[in-house]
TrEMBL record:
UniProt organism field: Sinorhizobium kummerowiae
Gene3D superfamilies cross-referenced by the UniProt entry: N-(1-d-carboxylethyl)-l-norvaline Dehydrogenase, domain 2, NAD(P)-binding Rossmann-like Domain
Domain Mannitol dehydrogenase C-terminal: 285-475
Domain Mannitol dehydrogenase N-terminal: 32-277
Keywords recorded for this protein, A-Z: NAD, Oxidoreductase, Plasmid
PROSITE patterns on file: MANNITOL_DHGENASE (PS00974)
Name by which UniProt lists this protein: Mannitol dehydrogenase family protein
Pfam families xrefs: Mannitol_dh, Mannitol_dh_C
UniProt-listed InterPro entries: 6-PGluconate_DH-like_C_sf, 6PGD_dom2, Mannitol_DH, Mannitol_DH/Oxidoreductase, Mannitol_DH_C, Mannitol_DH_CS, Mannitol_DH_N, NAD(P)-bd_dom_sf
Length: 491
């Protein structure tokens, strides 16, 4: 380390022949997409689909915006936006350099530059991966949280926003004043009906600013999408491995799996890249795909992250190797979640589930259970609670789903099974820690958590069977611990 040159337009020619690289002229790419939340996921997913199409139409380059920290900009700007994608399948690593991110901005440092770029006529799509909490909404109802500090700030200072919502509405307002049609909004976050949720939230925000603006925002195109690729956070050891394979330093390579999927609703009034040529699927209604992915993949992920972390498993693959875990996850998907899913004609659901189990077991991905455990209050509603509601309505069982929810509570209380503190990351971490402080009885802990109507709604806390199922699951976890609880699922 330190002796190698850094990846950039100047040095890209020196890469070994085995490393794939852009086939288009990097100098000709211009910005057509502003992406809010330029994290690892975007760079392993939408940026890769877009990269494949730039030789056909170089007007769809990406301006990547960080809404919080300058880290990504600082890492990628000296590299002319170039970065390495390392696809890992257990056999080895397939390396390619991605060139679609052509501009990097850090919003808190220069919100005006972000607004200028969003208001530019060349920008035709504003896409987002801002994570669940970035929507500043009530996860149980999908409506804007008008008391959220960033929203309060952005309503008071519309020209210097902090939240994605504030940026979007201000940029649309500037476009309208300049006679430029609004861009298409493209939410790529793991929320059901992500396009509808985003539209509802920005409309609510615009209403609080100005009814005439709200009338425009209400009509902005905001197709929903289902996105899927497992992308663990990059570690220093990943950086070292990539540098030694490339013969060049890359400040922020992205590690991912071979699998990728993108299903998008067709609604792009100002045009779009031909993403279907890179494997995306365009449909009229994405909801069946979304339910399937959020409830099977993400629901399993959260369940195994909490139980796995509590049982001492550092990564998803380690968690899957715990006796009983695979049987639990398989049973959760097959018996409890699959019956709740809308039909997708011609779709092989058993094969999809089997592939998920395989993906979770990918030993080459060091996907930390702690990473997935983050932001549970924002994730549980769409990952586990929706399935539970459907099972309750059908009068059917949901013990495994209830165990996932109880494991979140056990985890979010902030002490592991050896009594050591857990670094719980959640926008409501402090509130959760205070909820059941000093309480040990499972029923009282459950009752304390069920006061979180922004997570559970008002229906679930009122359901006696749901409460009883949670108490039973939490009682078992507290008495026996996670590893022994899991062992009881062993086939
Ligand atoms: C994970 C997701 O961190 C998490 O909560 O469940 O990021 C998951 O890896 C992706 O949705 C896979 O597409």
């Amino acid at each position: 380390m330190g002796l190698l040159m850094q990846l950039s337009k100047k040095t890209i020619g020196s890469l070994p022949r085995t490393v794939k690289r852009p086939h288009y002229d990097l100098g000709t790419v211009t910005v057509g997409i502003v992406h809010l939340g330029i994290g690892a996921f975007h760079r392993a997913h939408q940026a890769v689909y877009t990269d494949a199409l730039l030789s056909e139409d170089p007007s769809w380059g990406i301006c990547g915006v960080s809404l919080r920290s300058p880290e990504t900009r600082d890492a990628l700007q000296p590299q002319d936006g170039l970065y390495t994608l390392a696809v890992q399948d257990g056999e080895g690593s397939d390396l390619s350099v991605v060139g679609s991110v052509v501009e990097l901005l850090c919003a808190p440092e220069d919100p005006e530059a972000v607004l200028r770029r969003m208001a530019d006529p060349g920008t035709r799509i504003v896409s987002l991966t801002i994570t669940e909490k970035g929507y500043c909404h009530n996860p149980a109802t999908g409506t804007l949280d008008e008391g959220h500090p960033d929203i309060v700030h952005d309503l008071a200072n519309p020209a210097r926003p902090r939240s994605a919502i504030g940026f979007i509405v201000e940029a649309i307002s500037r476009r309208v004043s300049a006679g430029i049609a609004p861009f298409t909004l493209l939410s790529c976050d793991n929320l059901p009906g992500n396009g509808h949720v985003l539209k509802r939230i920005v409309t609510q925000f615009a209403e609080a600013r100005d009814p005439a603006l709200a009338a425009v925002v209400r009509n902005v195109a905001s197709p929903s999408t289902m996105v899927d690729r497992i992308v663990p956070a990059t570690t220093d050891s990943d950086r070292r491995a990539v540098a030694s394979a490339m013969g060049l330093e890359d400040a922020w390579p992205i590690m991912t799996e071979p699998f990728r999927q993108w299903v998008i609703e067709e609604d792009f009034p100002l045009g779009r890249p031909a993403w279907e040529k890179a494997g995306a699927l365009f449909v009229q209604d994405v909801s069946a795909f979304e339910f399937m992915k959020l409830r099977l993949l993400n629901g399993s992920h959260s369940t195994l992250a909490y139980l796995g972390y509590l049982a001492g498993a550092e990564t998803v693959a380690d968690a899957m190797a715990l006796p009983g875990m695979e049987a639990l996850v398989e049973g959760l998907m097959r018996h409890e979640v699959s019956p709740t899913l809308p039909q997708l004609p011609g779709f092989d659901l058993p094969a999809y589930r089997a592939e998920l189990l395989q993906r979770f077991c990918n030993p080459a991905l060091r996907h930390r259970t702690w990473q997935i455990a983050m932001d549970g209050s924002q994730k549980l509603p769409q990952r586990l609670l929706g399935s539970i509601r459907d099972r309750l309505r059908a009068g059917a069982g949901y013990d495994r789903l209830a165990l996932g929810v109880a494991a979140w509570m056990r985890y979010a209380r902030g002490l592991d099974e050896a009594g050591r503190p857990i670094d719980v990351r959640d926008p409501h971490a402090a509130r959760i820690a205070a909820l059941a402080q000093g309480i040990d009885e499972p029923d009282r802990i459950i009752d304390a958590f069920l006061t979180m109507t922004d997570v559970f709604g008002t229906d679930l806390p009122a359901s006696a069977p749901f409460r009883a199922a949670l108490i039973k699951a939490l009682d078992g976890l507290l008495r026996n611990g996670s590893a022994a609880t899991l062992r009881s699922f062993r086939r």
